[in-house]
Design brief:
Length: 415
């Protein structure tokens, strides 16, 4: 059947109208399909993530947060994007939001390194200590060599007033990162609290014990209250006159106070009570050298070294004895060993000076000059370090130090 021209024109117009109606719908559907494909496209999400990470590292936190949120929309299973968003929120002080982001990251990747650590920090900052401890314990379980995780677990245990548990965590942190000042600070604080608890219990059980006076004396000595330390040691000795060690400790305090006859008497009494007290013998030997009795001093120091090799500053004191006896060659060898030993810094400096003196007496002029130059270099370095520490203390007094360490510097995760 042939259609009339009029009918064909009508059909053409109807088809055109139908195409006009259908095309936008098809276009919208195509765009929706494209958007859905983009939302699930890891490559697109990764590029958004990369740009957000760059913004984060540049300190552009708002742009970084928006970027990570966009990456999550593009790929809802992007654990690292949730983690980095949590880091940004932590930096912005949005700890509650950060908790949610870290929890989502953990749900997607339970073993994501750092996620439980920062979750614990965010919980800690909101004083939710039990939740913080649980998260940090998970991190230490997953990554037992992460010093920061152990440190923060220790910090939380301190906040929970559990110093013994804090000591356990902070000792592990210090073993993993022995030069971390924050770890050392919190570890020292935890150990002090444990000691305080022990002493409190000791005082409660027996307040008249000689041990109480010994502890008080040791505390005074550490605080450089040496007169008070002497008084407490004397009280301890009244209660336990034959207790080994007390007279040796008393003699050390007398020596610091430059009460040398009293110090010598205390060391001699210690050796009567305990002839095997090496420290009392060694300290008597050092005092003999200082008084100019080099022969007795050498005998006592060498006798102590036979029982306990490696006594602190022993090579230096032997060198001084040999020097007084006129044995310059032996003295030079002793001082050389002292410069390479674990002696106190001041003793090492003095060893270089005494070595220079002995070498000059032996007419080893060039070596003597080198020894004196090393002594001067160490002395100058010590003075510079002293001034630096004074400046640091002044700054610390001006700015009130925080008891808790700052959160870890954000380390964005890579996809």
């Amino acid at each position: 059947m042939r259609l009339s021209a009029r009918t064909l024109r009508r059909a053409s117009r109807a088809l055109a109208h139908l195409l006009f109606l259908v095309s936008p719908a098809c276009s919208l559907m195509a765009r929706a399909n494209s958007a859905q494909q983009t939302a699930q496209d890891p490559a697109v999400a990764n590029e958004t993530f990369r740009q957000a990470t760059q913004a984060m590292r540049a300190g552009q936190l708002d742009a970084a947060a928006a970027g990570f949120a966009s990456a999550i929309k593009q790929n809802p299973k992007f654990a690292e994007a949730y983690f980095n968003l949590g880091l940004v929120q932590t930096s912005q002080g949005l700890n509650e939001e950060a908790v949610g982001s870290f929890q989502k990251a953990i749900a997607l990747k339970p073993q994501l390194h750092g996620a439980n650590l920062f979750l614990g920090i965010a919980e800690y900052r909101q004083n939710r200590l039990d939740k913080a401890a649980a998260a940090l314990q998970k991190e230490t379980s997953l990554y037992p060599k992460d010093a920061s995780a152990w440190m923060w677990l220790g910090v939380v245990r301190l906040a929970q007033e559990q110093p013994a548990e804090a000591v356990e965590a902070l000792d592990k942190a210090a073993k993993l990162d022995p030069k971390n000042v924050d770890i050392l600070y919190h570890r020292g604080r935890a150990h002090l609290l444990v000691s305080k608890d022990s002493y409190t219990e000791m005082f409660r059980l027996d307040p008249k014990s000689w041990r109480v006076h010994q502890v008080l004396a040791q505390t005074d000595a550490e605080s450089e209250h040496h007169e008070e330390a002497v008084a407490e040691y004397l009280e301890a000795i009244k209660l336990a006159p034959m207790q080994p060690g007390l007279h040796e400790e008393l003699g050390s305090e007398y020596r610091i106070l430059v009460k040398l006859p009293e110090a010598e008497a205390a060391f001699l009494r210690e050796l009567e009570i305990d002839p095997n007290n090496v420290l009392a013998q060694y300290k008597l030997g050092v005092m003999a050298v200082e008084k100019g009795d080099a022969a007795l001093g050498k005998k006592l120091v060498e006798g102590a070294l036979k029982e306990k090799p490696g006594l602190l500053n022993a090579d230096y004191n032997l060198g001084r004895a040999e020097m007084l006896l006129g044995n310059d060659t032996a003295a030079a060898e002793d001082f050389k060993r002292a410069t390479q030993s674990n002696s106190e810094p001041e003793i090492i400096r003095q060893s270089w000076y005494q070595l220079g003196t002995v070498l000059r007496r032996m007419h080893h002029t060039e070596e003597a000059q080198q020894a004196f130059a090393t002594f001067q270099k160490l002395k100058d370095a010590e003075e510079e370090d002293l001034q630096r520490r004074k400046r640091k203390r002044a700054m610390q007094q001006e700015q009130q130090g925080q008891e808790t360490p700052p959160a870890e510097s954000p380390k964005p995760q890579e996809p």
